[in-house]
Automatic annotation (TrEMBL):
Listed GO biological process terms: methylation
Pfam families: Methyltransf_33 (PF10017)
Xref: Gene3D superfamilies: Vaccinia Virus protein VP39
Taxonomic classification: Bacteria, Pseudomonadati, Bacteroidota, Cytophagia, Cytophagales
Matching InterPro entries: EgtD (IPR035094), EgtD_Methyltrsf_superfamily (IPR051128), MeTrfase_dom (IPR019257), MeTrfase_EgtD-like (IPR017804), SAM-dependent_MTases_sf (IPR029063)
Name used for this protein in its record: Dimethylhistidine N-methyltransferase
């Protein structure tokens, strides 16, 4: 493939991201590209692993405190409101809240937001069968677009950002994102965010490097996706998954490690990338928090903590926030 023919075609978002990420030092790729169909299936397996506690912990919070969480999200003044969920996925935890709102005859509309039209279609079809009385207004969009539309929604709203996804942001990006979330919120609106809490460092590390190797397959699948979509020639036999956790920073960092000196050709970019032996590609952050850190983060974003719900082992926290009066 000639350079001129490659450059004559616009690059996909994935190709642009890979070009930027692999040209920098250290090399990095975003975890947002983990979730092709195979990646999504692998993550479903991860959530069922004995080492992976976050999903079970948050689900336990919803089962134990569902009524109180629904009450905390419900507007103080009776009237219609929207329950907006960023990154809805399969909605398994949210269904606990939806049933609680339906049980109490709340006048609300569920507005799930997901970038995947396929995932959204599956969620909406499932909800129509399980909860035929539920009003659903799906939004197939990225977070940035959805956030820009939040302020134009009439009535009160509760915004959900569950599953410890907030931990995937680097500190500066996390604060910027929270400020974006806070900007369209009226004082009566509520924001519910899931935070994975700091705990035994060995338990945290094991959750991201399980004994069955499913998390390793999930990380390596990113290279398989680049081979398929960008026609790269990553040899997965020359790569391994590595995860580390720092109790000082609260950061789990995941990497793909080149086990030998090698070069990788990516025809979609008309470029060859050199990798030294044991050079890494940083693929994911997953930060863990303390409750005082969450309070401080909320304050920096112009928010206040209204309620905090934790599981029995204090592994996880779902925190309700609001804009200042």
């Amino acid at each position: 493939m000639s350079s001129s023919s490659t450059l004559s075609r616009p690059l996909s978002a994935l190709a642009q991201h890979v070009a930027t990420g692999l040209r920098q030092t250290p090399k990095a790729l975003s975890s947002m590209y983990f979730y092709d169909d195979a990646g999504s299936r692998l993550f479903q397996q991860i959530m069922a692993l004995p080492e992976y506690y976050p999903t079970r912990a948050e689900f336990a919070i919803f089962e134990q405190h569902g009524a109180a969480i629904a009450e905390a999200l419900r507007p103080a003044v009776n009237g219609p409101f929207a329950l907006v969920e960023l990154g809805a996925g399969d909605g398994s935890k949210t269904k606990v809240l939806l049933r609680e709102f339906l049980r109490t005859d709340a006048d609300f509309t569920y507005a799930p937001v997901d970038i995947s039209a396929g995932a959204m279609s599956g969620l909406v079809n499932g909800l129509q069968q399980e909860m035929p009385g539920l009003q659903v207004a799906p939004v197939v969009s990225d977070y940035a677009t959805a956030l820009s539309q939040l302020g134009s929604r009439p009535g009160s709203k509760g915004v959900l950002f569950l599953g410890s996804n907030i931990g995937n942001f680097a500190p500066a990006d996390r604060l910027s994102f929270l400020r974006q979330l806070a900007a369209p919120l009226a004082p009566a609106d509520r924001l519910l965010i899931g935070f994975d809490l700091q705990k035994d460092p060995r338990r945290i590390r094991a959750a991201y490097d399980d004994s069955q190797g499913v998390t390793a397959a999930f990380n390596l699948n990113l290279l398989t996706r680049l081979n398929r979509e960008l026609h790269a020639d990553f040899d997965l036999a020359n790569w391994q998954h590595f995860t580390d956790y720092s109790p000082l920073s609260g950061a789990v960092r995941s990497f793909l490690v080149s086990t030998r000196a090698q070069q990788v050709r990516i025809p979609a970019l008309d470029e060859t990338f050199q990798f030294a032996a044991w050079e890494v590609i940083h693929t994911e952050n997953s930060f863990k928090f303390t409750l005082p850190q969450i309070e401080e983060l909320a304050a920096q974003a112009g928010l206040r903590v209204v309620d905090t719900f934790t599981d029995a082992d204090t592994d996880f926290a779902d925190v309700v926030m609001a804009a200042h009066e």
